[in-house]
Amino acid sequence: MSSAKNKKTPTRATALPEEFARELEEMFNGRFSRSDSIRDLHSRDESYFPPALPWAVVFPESTDEVAALVRACNRHNVPMVPFGAGSSLEGHVLPVHGGISVDLTRMNRIRAIHAEDRDVVVEPGVTRLQLEKALAEHGLFFPVDPGADATLGGMVATRASGTTTVRYGTMRDNVVCLEAVLADGTVIRTGRRAKKSSAGYDLTRLFIGSEGTLGVITEITLRVHGIPEGISAAVCSFPDLRSAVESAVEVIQWGVPVARLELLDEVQIAAVNAHSKLDHEEVPTLFFEFHGSPSGVEEDARTASDIAKEHGGREFRWATAAGERNELWRARHEAYFAALALRPGARVMSTDVCVPISRLVECITETKAEVSKASFPVPLVGHVGDGNFHLLLVIDPSSPDELDEAHALNRALVERALRMGGTCTGEHGVGIGKQRWMELEHGPALDVMRAIKTALDPKGLMNPGKLLPPR
Amino acid sequence: MSSAKNKKTPTRATALPEEFARELEEMFNGRFSRSDSIRDLHSRDESYFPPALPWAVVFPESTDEVAALVRACNRHNVPMVPFGAGSSLEGHVLPVHGGISVDLTRMNRIRAIHAEDRDVVVEPGVTRLQLEKALAEHGLFFPVDPGADATLGGMVATRASGTTTVRYGTMRDNVVCLEAVLADGTVIRTGRRAKKSSAGYDLTRLFIGSEGTLGVITEITLRVHGIPEGISAAVCSFPDLRSAVESAVEVIQWGVPVARLELLDEVQIAAVNAHSKLDHEEVPTLFFEFHGSPSGVEEDARTASDIAKEHGGREFRWATAAGERNELWRARHEAYFAALALRPGARVMSTDVCVPISRLVECITETKAEVSKASFPVPLVGHVGDGNFHLLLVIDPSSPDELDEAHALNRALVERALRMGGTCTGEHGVGIGKQRWMELEHGPALDVMRAIKTALDPKGLMNPGKLLPPR
Asked: Which residue of A355, B116, B240, B358 sits 20 to 30 Å from the alpha carbon of A341, by its own alpha carbon?
């Protein structure tokens, strides 16, 4: 991989050139801001990293405006950092090398709903709950559901997934094609609306998970699904963590087509109870959902329930009406905020790994043994049907000792997952926080990623300081 | 996309340097050949393109040997063309710029079957029927089934799909990760065995469909599936093509989770009857398969059958026993050879496109009206559940008139598909034959592909003359 080496990165600007600021002011009028409050809002996400202020914030409203902005930034060697809901968990949107925060939330139109093709075309600032509402009228839904009400652009950029990934896949599987603005301002389309294609390199998948480092995503065509006829959700309590995880693994290995299969440990359940005023028994708990025809759902649920019972699980508590189900999953989606509420003033260092399902019991039980000795609360919650789980390290970010302890736990978790054939992040992305393991996880393939980055962004202006570790 | 421009491609060798031949002879001993018969076997695939002889053929048996070979070729600026079953349809394996044909069929070991994780690790020369047999013992199957008994390496390289893609996806969806040898001999792994990951650029998907132009694939980890409890197949005849396609589209839009949904027009049915000694009524026909629990399969089949009847379809003729089903699908898989047998001495120009399902009726009926006037047989066969269909242009390749006519029909088909938001190839790949439409399909995104190619293969030695059109 020699091609990327020995190339000198052109000098990035270190502050906003005044003439450029005037240029942007003229281009964007009231949608260009250098105010402290606006910059502050764009200096942080949901991670524990110290804020980093952008030099200015721009709010484009169209692909053409994004392209014009990118061309201008490119001319002035000014870094660009796309910004959506600010709900990233590894510092993705923090302008650590300064530059312009490109706030895409005004590009929030749903451009087309092709119900007959089961796809929709959205702008990157559309949020998942906004989309959910628009699709429901057509009897459709979009399955990928990270905890936050993230923007679809952010979800593409981090290759997000969620509770339904076990059945419907991640963003990788649910994006048809993209429009993106490259580092030099060129607007490309990465594919067509056909369901499959063998016509060249898969640029769609290259941009999914690229975290803003290859270009700015300006339009997304998503695959959507018909709302199933039968939906049924259930909660099942277990005497201990191992039996809960063993049940989950067995349900998957048995081939039950669960739509959701979530684990909350007793710490997380207690947090959820307190935060969402619920009364779940405070023990390790699996949350299930089944989709299909009414008879299929019943069949699947019976199999899962039988497996759970064999492992000491209690009776399934059902939620079949839509209202009850939403209530149940709201609790799950608020896990992060429930964890945050455990300690006033705390921040959550949220980390996630994913391992082959055959190693999940071992990985979770070893991890749990370790974090149960931590000096702060560490809820464990997971998309266990995928072999993916999270630790929410609820720390006082002003305490160096707690930060050190949290970093050590995170390191141990990631290295355990890598040893077991897993990945350093199943769904949060690399951002700032996971860069240190990219070499260990990818070896020489990391140089391929660098070569691609250099080929598409030779000046290193697209979200610099993210995804790829410094050499 | 300026970075890739103005770069001079280093001069490729135009013949096999004698010292290099001796080097290879020493390295590979009896597994290096310059014999005419061996070279001839590696000069062609199933396409209509004139053969192109490699300078020599090498049969590596391990990743290390491939890496050593690639390093040596790189040193001598000698092109490399990976070769598997030779069943590609767009000239992918033809060494049009000379060089070494890298025959990977001796790398045909199944390295691991992880039944508990539903994945398998195979070498690139393993064929799909070989894999099918090995998996069956474990109650597992691999769904992607192009017509030929292709190698898995070739299937990755062309992003192959098949009759079950409507339910289980293409190679894109069924490859977990890869090992590949890059142009400079570096061996990389593109990912881990975890079910999902957000750790960096999706190199796995970049290599799937790259047609040997970015590196040589030396190991493949595939997702496999449990053989469903209930499987049932059926055939349904229709009074005309439109009603058959309309039924297929409606089955998909209704959300019936069919496992297979294939169309054979009356010309293809006649060919299959003659070739496989069958007695299907010679009218447009849909072939269905349903997978699931026994009750689910029944439910799905009833819905599909009701839809077909509304469109004038006959009674479903069922094949539920495994033997009958295999017989039924064998006929479908032999469609290509059945077409070839229509005219002794003929070649098949096999082309495929894929359009959004909402445009499929229009696309197929327009196409059929055109090809029914052709001066040679043109069976139409399709994975219609995906919006994907094929024309098999059964031509005398020595007739310039027939070649011209076939090219014109192919061009009209592709341009129709592109106009309808589709792609110039749903599953055959670009190879030589579809290059001329890459610009029209991808616009400026084609330059991104070129930039990636230049970054990973700066000397242009990896399967030159394929996928990317000349500038």
From this structure: A355
Tokens 């067509």: give the residue.
A192
State the pLDDT confidence band at B3, using cuts at 50, 70 and 90.
very low
Task: Burial-class residue B37 by CB neighbours within 10 Å (0-12, 13-18, 19+).
Answer: exposed
CA atoms of B127 and A322, how far apart (whole Å): 47
Judged by a CB distance cut-off of 8 A, whether residue B345 touches chain A is: no
Cα separation values, B208 from A419, B154, B161, B357, Å: 26, 10, 12, 24
Q: Do A187 and B444 touch (CB under 8 A)?
A: yes
Using a CB–CB cutoff of 8 Å, tell me whether B355 touches chain A. yes
Which band of pLDDT confidence, cut at 50, 70 and 90, is reported for residue A5?
Answer: very low
Choose the weakest-confidence range: A77-86, A192-201, A221-230, A329-338: A329-338
Question: What is the count of residue pairs from A and B with beta carbons less than 8 Å apart?
Answer: 287
Confidence of residue B9 (pLDDT cuts 50, 70, 90): low
Does ipTM come in above 0.90? yes
Which of B83, B47, B85 lies closest to B352, judged by CA?
A: B47
Per DSSP bridges, beta strands A175-182 and A140-141 are unpaired
Q: Which residues of A touch B165 (CB under 8 A)?
A: 196
Using CB atoms, which residue from B194, B292, B443 is nearest to A426?
Answer: B194
What's the pLDDT at B2?
41
Q: How many CB atoms lie within 10 A of CB A174?
A: 24
Q: Please indicate if any CB of chain A lies within 8 Å of the CB of B63.
A: no
Q: Decide if B194 and A387 are in contact by the 8 Å CB cutoff.
A: yes
Question: Within 13 Å and on the Cβ side, how many CA atoms surround A232?
Answer: 19
Tokens matching residue B288: 């269905």
Residue in chain A closest to B424 (alpha carbons) equals A199
Contact A199 B434 (CB under 8 A): yes
CA distance A102 to A307: 49
**Digit-coded pLDDT (tens) for A251-303:** 999 999 999 999 999 999 999 999 999 999 999 999 999 998 888 899 899 99
Domains of chain B by start residue, with CATH:
110-226 (3.30.465.10), 229-430 (3.40.462.10)
B82 inside 8 A of chain A by CB? no
> Who's near A39: CB < 8 A, 6+ residues apart?
A33, A53, A54, A55, A56, A57, A101
Report the percent of chain B where pLDDT is more than 90: 91
Q: Is the pLDDT of residue B83 over 90?
A: yes
Separation in Å, CA of A121 to nearest CA in chain B: 13
Quick one: which of B120, B129, B52, B114 has its CA closest to B83? B52
Tell me the per-residue pLDDT of A17-30, one tens digit each, with 9 for 90 and over: 999 999 999 999 99
Closest CA to B337 of B43, B94, B87: B87
Give, in degrees to the nearest 5, the angle at Cα B382 between B377 and B388. Answer: 125
Contacts A454 to B, Cβ<8 Å? 3, 455
Residues 367-396 on B with a CB inside 8 Å of A are: 386-388
If you average pLDDT over every residue of chain B, what do you get?
Answer: 95
CB contact under 8 A, A438 and B200: yes
| φ, ψ at B317 (rounded to 5°) | -100, 120
3-state secondary structure of B141: strand
A246, A248, A272, B311 from A243: Cα distances, Å? 5, 9, 21, 52
Residues from chain A that touch B219, judged by Cβ atoms under 8 A, are none
Q: Which uninterrupted H or E stretch holds B241?
A: helix B241-253
- For chain A, say whether B182 makes contact (Cβ under 8 Å): yes
**Among the listed residues B357, B399, B364, B358, the one whose alpha carbon sits nearest the alpha carbon of residue B378:** B364
Residue A95 and residue A81 in contact, taking contact as beta carbons nearer than 8 Å: yes
> Which residues sit opposite A393 in a β-bridge?
A349
A328: left (phi over 0), alpha (psi -120 to 50) or beta: alpha
Question: Do B248 and B384 meet the contact criterion of CB atoms below 8 Å apart?
Answer: yes
